[in-house]
């Protein structure tokens, strides 16, 4: 399993950051420009990644003010789990971590690990930007 992580700090309480992430409708704001055909509800989202694939994901696990886990609802090119964790940074703000776990063979790892890391980094950067 390939694990890709990206972390950011947001100057808002854990409850506010968690509430934003717990609604999949908000995740469109975190996506890069190569994502289109976005449609979402509070629990799921489907979208197309330019020149790659169409993905549908659904939140399967929520631990209030701690963690969210989303997985594909349709067959993806590889097994995938998207997780967000939030924790108090001790100063009234939040440490938000985006963890992408993907079951990649060697060939897929060479092709996908870089873009997945860029996606995780982009999403945490956007989260910090949006929730200033």
Which features characterize this protein?
132 residues, alpha+beta, Alpha-D-Glucose-1,6-Bisphosphate, Chain A, domain 4, seven-stranded antiparallel β-sheet, 2 helices, 7 strands
CATH architecture: 2-Layer Sandwich
CATH third-level topology? Alpha-D-Glucose-1,6-Bisphosphate, Chain A, domain 4
**What kind of sheet is the major sheet?**
7 strands, antiparallel
What is the straight-line distance between the termini?
Answer: 33 Å
The number of helical elements comes to 2
Structural class: alpha+beta
User: What is the helical fraction, as a range of percent?
Assistant: 25-40%
CATH class: Alpha Beta
**Count of discrete domains:** 1
Rg, rounded, reads 14 Å
What do we call the CATH homologous superfamily?
Answer: START domain
Order of helices and strands: EHEEEEEEH
Per DSSP E runs of 2 or more residues, the count of β-strands stands at 7
Q: Beta-sheet strand percentage?
A: 35-45%
Shape annotation: globular
Low-confidence stretches: none
Could you give the order of strands across the largest sheet? 1-7-6-5-4-3-2
**Average pLDDT level:** 94
């Amino acid at each position: 399993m390939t694990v890709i992580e990206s972390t950011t700090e947001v100057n808002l309480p854990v409850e506010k950051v968690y509430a934003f992430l717990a609604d999949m409708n908000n995740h469109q704001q975190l996506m890069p420009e190569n994502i289109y055909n976005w449609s979402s509800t509070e629990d799921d989202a489907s979208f197309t990644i330019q020149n790659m694939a169409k993905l549908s994901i659904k939140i399967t696990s929520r631990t209030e003010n701690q963690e969210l886990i989303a997985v594909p609802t349709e067959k993806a090119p590889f097994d995938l789990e998207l997780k967000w964790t939030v924790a108090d940074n001790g100063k009234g703000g939040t440490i938000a971590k985006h963890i992408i776990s993907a079951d990649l063979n060697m060939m897929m790892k060479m092709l996908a690990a870089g873009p997945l890391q860029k996606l995780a980094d982009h999403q945490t950067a956007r989260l910090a930007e949006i929730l200033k």
